[in-house]
Each structure stands twice: as structure tokens, then as C-alpha cells.
Amino acid sequence: MTSARYRAFVAVARHGSLSAAARALHVSQPTVSAQIASLEQQSHLELFHRRGYRMNLSVAGEQLLPLAQKILALEAEAEYFLRDAGQLNQGTLHLGAVGPFHVIEMVAAYRQRHPGMKLSIRIGNSRQVLEDLVNYATDLGVLAGRHDNDALDALLYARHAIILFAHKDHFLARHRSVPLAMLEGVELLRREAGSTTQATLDKALHDAGVRTECALEVGSRESLREAVARGLGVGAVSEAEFIPDPRFRPIRIEGDPAITSTYIYFARERRESVLVRSFLQAQQKVLESAASMMQSPLS
């Protein structure tokens, strides 16, 4: 089987139709159709269920997908190794992240070392970022918090205190910092289920025996900012992600009882890959600083 057939298979699985896959691969639709038909005829398996123009993976297709993605990832690794004496003067590095803040910082550092490389960033929730790594859809992922997965390794990139921010007319806005106990009964805006920031703050509140009111649940940082700006409640965010705004005031929690940690994740078996190693080397100074930070409490 040629890699072109695997590439067509992965593209159809990702985009859901022959036409969309053809556009993504810059080939004709009949070419993609023929490659899928060839795979199915040779294996005597139905890899997709056809529903009009839509194509959904069958059980066999779902089992093949991570293997095909791994084959394509290894093929790319071989090309990078053999081409340009391993200098990475061309090609694409695929990243996954739950938010733009740290990953853009990392991309800037990488581009300084490898200006000829292209980078693709896929933003999603934690579950999607981890699945993409395991399935070889991305090369590295940037996530908050530790996630147990035997197939993945993680390196600490940064640690930041969680801070509050409130409308400028809110009573908490008169304080630069407050004890956690002062949040008793305060209407605290909640992030969506699965938010590491929310889970970390919830644990700190629970451990301190502090109960807050749930004013509203929001699904993004942008929505959180607007809700705070309109006086709907108090927000919480990683200190590194706080963006100043005249409509509200930042408030530190005394003693920094809630800390978020950002990690770079990658498949364990790809630790020595050219792509993964080149990205980690570009972040080396920050990674070394984060490692030393773990030796002492966050100040």
C-alpha cells in the first residue's frame, strides 16, 4: 500500500467527505475516491459508511485511523531526517492547544530557530488535544495541568497563580488582594466543565471551606471578560492570561492558594523524533526555568 492511500483515508476521515478531502490534498475527487476504493478492495473491509455526500468511519475505519496517522507521521519523520541534513528548513509542525496564550509564545521561539518551517495550531478542549496526540494527528500539545496517559510524556512549561477580576464598582475591586475567606457568598462566574482553572480554584475553595454563589457558567475567556465587565459576577483567570481593561480590576488571592501549570505533551515513543526534539530545544530556556521553579514554592 502506498502512503498516498493512507493520506487519502486520513483526509476523508478528518473532513467527512471526498470533495473536502480532495480540496485539502489538492488533488481531484476521483483520485481520492479511487484511493479509498483501492484500500477497501484490497482489505475486503468497509472503512466508511456512506450517507449521501457524508462519509463516516466504520468500526474497521476507526481501528485503522490511528495506525494510518502513525504511518504518515513516521514517513514525515524520515523525510525530515534525510532532507537538508536534518536542519528542518521546510515542512510543517502540527500543534494542539486549549488556548492561544502560551502556544503562540512557543511558536515565536520556534520560528526564530526554524524560519523555514510552517506551523499549524489546532485549538480544542483538553480531551481533543490528547486524542490528537495519541492518534498522531498532532506532534505536540499544550495543556494546563497533568493528564494521566501512559502513551504520553509531559514537560512543565510555566506555573501561574489564579487571580480574580471584578467590575470596577464591585466591592472587591477596592482591594489589591483578598483572603480566600472573603469570597464566601460572592457570585463567582464559572468556566465550562473541564476547565483546569475552574477545577483548581474549586479545590482551593473546598479545602478552605469557602462557599461561593454560582452566578453564571460561561464557555470562553472572551465571554468571561464580558460578563465581568457587565457586572454579572467575579471572574477567575490565570495571572498570565489576564488582559487589563478599564472596566474591571485584578485582585490577587492572598497566599496564591490556586496555581495553574502549563505542560508540553508529546507521544512517549516520539521523544527522540526530529520534530519533537527541535520544538523542545526551542523552548529549552523556559523549560529549564520551569524545572527549577518546581524546586521551590511559587512566590
TrEMBL record:
This protein's name: Transcriptional regulator
Keywords: DNA-binding, Transcription, Transcription regulation
Record carries keyword Chloroplast: no
UniProt cross-references to Pfam families, sorted A to Z: HTH_1 (PF00126), LysR_substrate (PF03466)
Family: Belongs to the LysR transcriptional regulatory family.
Keyword Transferase in annotation: no
Annotated organism of origin: Bordetella ansorpii
All copies of domain HTH lysR-type, residue ranges: 1-58
Annotated GO MF terms: DNA-binding transcription factor activity; transcription cis-regulatory region binding
InterPro entries: LysR_HTH_N (IPR000847), LysR_subst-bd (IPR005119), WH-like_DNA-bd_sf (IPR036388), WH_DNA-bd_sf (IPR036390)
